[in-house]
Amino acid sequence: MPNERGVRMTDGRTTGSARAFELLEPLVQAATVRVHAPPGGYENPRSHRTGPTWGSGFFIAPGWVLTCAHVVGEGGAAVRLTGREVGITFSAGSITGTVTGRVECVLPERLEERRPARHALWDLPDLALVRVLAPVSHACVWLTDRSRPRFDEVAYFGCTEDLGTPEITGRTTRLRGTAGNGAAIRLGDDDEIEPGMSGGPVVDLARGEVVGVLKARRQTGGGGLAVSVVQLRTLPMAARGQVGLYRRIMQAHDLYHYDQHLSDLDNRRTWTDVHGELPPEEGDPYAGRGRLTPGERTTLYGLLAELPPPGSSEVVRALVEAARGEEPDPLPPAPLSWRDGLGLLHDPPGGTGEAAAMLRYATDVSVAEYREPATPGADEELWDWVRATAERLWRPLRRELGERHERGLAERERRRRASAGRTAHGPARRSGGLPPGASVLLEVWAHGWEDVYDWRVSVLAGPAHAGRVTPVDSGVRATLAGLPEALRAPLAEGFRRCDTHEAAALLEVAVAPALFGLAVDEWVVVGGVPLGVQRPVVLRHPAGANPGAASPVAASPVAASPGGVGPGGAREHPADREGTDASARWARVQAGPLQDERADCIRGRPRSPATEWLTGLPDNTVPVHCRAADQEPTLGSLHAVRDAGYGVVVTRRPPPDPGASCAPFHRGLREELADAGRAEVLPVRLQNLRGRAYGADPDAYWAAGTGLVWEDPARPLPDEEPLQGDL
To answer: For 498, phi and psi rounded to 5 degrees?
Structure first.
């Protein structure tokens, strides 16, 4: 008799996957929908005809359908996708219903600006989220929490017309790898993918979870691509103080399955029931007590969903690291919800078991700081569940969890008392200053003497963990014109990791002074708003840069002064050298009051500042540059002020008209510095100025192109440069 775990059947599936398909098929079909024109169409709204099939989709939470962007764009290439109405036909038991949905957003956002040619592949991740415009009863799929799929047998579902009538059907294949930096999943050629199936779910048969959205088939036939559902984490972030769309939908997803699991109103199988009936995985090292049961897992997700979401992605990663015993996978997309943290705890190191790691994590979440107060008793209910679940596990683990909970309660109480004290006696950081947490670091290096550049995006952990750097992505040989597009996705990922509900994270741009004119503050990454309007943006000197290697400043006597070059020719941070006034200057200028001083011009005419003059200026001076950073005398001046120990410096990209006077800029900046009073508020004030100019405030137009050099010694930069391309 065939082995239930591994003997292959004649249709290409193992008996185990065949049984899994049999169990999962009714659940997936009930949640999969047909996408078409709105009921009645655009020309005859009173008609009930739905027209031809555009593609498929599936319910991921009550009232929310996930599909492909190219599906909702069918038949309307010139129509804006977001806000477009579509028709959704679904089955609820033996009844088929049709409802109107509205496209809430598409990924990537640039699809609203630039559409591919007809019959061409749409840009990844090619996803659309549709809000149903009427309350209807329907089923929802179970979405994976894993950051990356396992390459096992899968089933995919979508709308076909094999017999002349649209119906939802399923087929099987295997995952063959990933593409698009993990955004897409390659499907094998075990079965045919038909056009109407685009947007349908791809289900991991071993674990009973949706891992992808069917995107395309190969033109030559056989196999295709699906989009990883983890790309939902790249949904646009919410404004400060609001819960983002991704977190809202995943919360609704988990509560739906939690409620289904607890309900005894009918005897229909739920996803949790089927998870308990799936054939066991062969050679699973965590089988038995090493994993949570399906019922325990569903309950845990539901209890976490009843808590307020975490304040930032870094909070989740820190708790995962503490529970897992090692730093979690740094690859994107960043974890944004408590649920995402559980997805990073599968198969932990050391053979300790998933159940133990997840219970440690849940314990820490129960005593964590939330973005807003939790519903009374919600955190205690989570801890009570952890304690009860641990009863079936090892006695030492039960004792460890109890001690962990007590330490967490004491630490939370300490933080609350400290916060209350700050409220009474003054805030922890003065009003208007930078957020104290992690920041995003963008480094750009000239690629030798060529007009191409290498780049790297990282996360700096912040002053609390000075020097800790987590890489996000890197690239080589990009042109200056191509940098905004090349960096769009990596920067968006960095912001997802660092932004909190209270503040947008700081962006630090570490480049050679010749690139201080790079208009990063004008780049648009997400939301259609320039970066400099969305968040504070500052410039940094690269920690390991050798200015003589790729800059004409090597010929400048000011920049070649020996005080600025360390062993091996690497330029040091002035604050790191004994015998300089950098530390004193930084502390003094932070406290204010501020004194501006023109460094590269005098009455509108260019000048080169003398070293003696710069070193003799008061410590609260802010040197100001109004000319092009990549030309003399400004380039030499930027090096000179750094060597003199100035950590706060103002630069400007000159206006297009070379005859325009710089007097309005200097006048406006002097008033701004006087009003600010201290340097610590300048990054945020400059962001506000950019926002006023973006909002067409003529009184802020003088600030166009203004940059702020910000050499914060509490945020040290990594020393190494990236590799110079392939050999």
So the answer is: -105, -30
Q: Which two three-digit tokens encode residue 450?
A: 């060529």
* Lookup result for tokens 């209890």: 303
Q: Which amino acid is at 34?
A: R
Complete DSSP assignment for 202-239 = EEETTTTEEEEEEEEE-TTSS-EEEEEGGGGGGSPPPP
CA distance 447 to 24: 53
Phi, psi dihedral angles at 162 (to 5 degrees): -55, -40
Beta carbons within 8 Å of 598's beta carbon, 6+ residues apart: 624, 626, 666
Q: What is the pLDDT of residue 253?
A: 96
Q: Decide the pairing of beta strands 439-446 and 507-510.
A: parallel
Helix extents (H) in 367-526: 378-389, 395-425, 483-498
Mind listing the pLDDT tens digit for each residue in 540-578? Answer: 998 754 333 333 333 333 333 323 333 333 334 444 443
Distance CA 278, CA 40 (A): 42
Please provide the DSSP assignment of 492-549 as one string: HHHHHHH-BSS-PPPEEEE--GGGTT--GGG-B-STTSBHHHHS-EEEE--TT--HHH
The secondary element (H helix, E strand) that includes residue 99 is: strand 95-107
pLDDT at residue 78, as a whole number: 57
Q: What is the pLDDT of residue 9?
A: 38
Q: Which residues contact 121 (CB under 8 A, 6 or more apart)?
A: 216
For residue 688, how far is the Cα from the chain centroid? 24
3-class DSSP assignment, residue 652: strand
Locate 624 and state its tokens: 């100001």
Residue 212's DSSP bridge partners are 202, 228
Residues of the chain with confidence (pLDDT) below 70: 1-14, 40-49, 75-79, 93-94, 219-222, 238-243, 283-289, 350-352, 419-431, 544-580, 720-727
pLDDT at 219: 66
Strand ranges, E, within 119-219: 127-132, 153-160, 167-179, 184-187, 201-204, 209-217
pTM equals: 0.82
- Using an 8 Å Cβ cutoff, are 36 and 54 in contact? yes
| CA 708-712-713 angle, 5° bins | 155
Using CA atoms in the order 158, 160, 163, 169, what is the torsion angle rounded to 10 degrees?
A: -10
How far apart are alpha carbons 683 and 672 in whole angstroms?
12
Predicted pLDDT of residue 77: 53
What gap in Å lies between CA 702 and CA 689, rounded to an integer? 9
Residue 576 is predicted with a pLDDT of 45
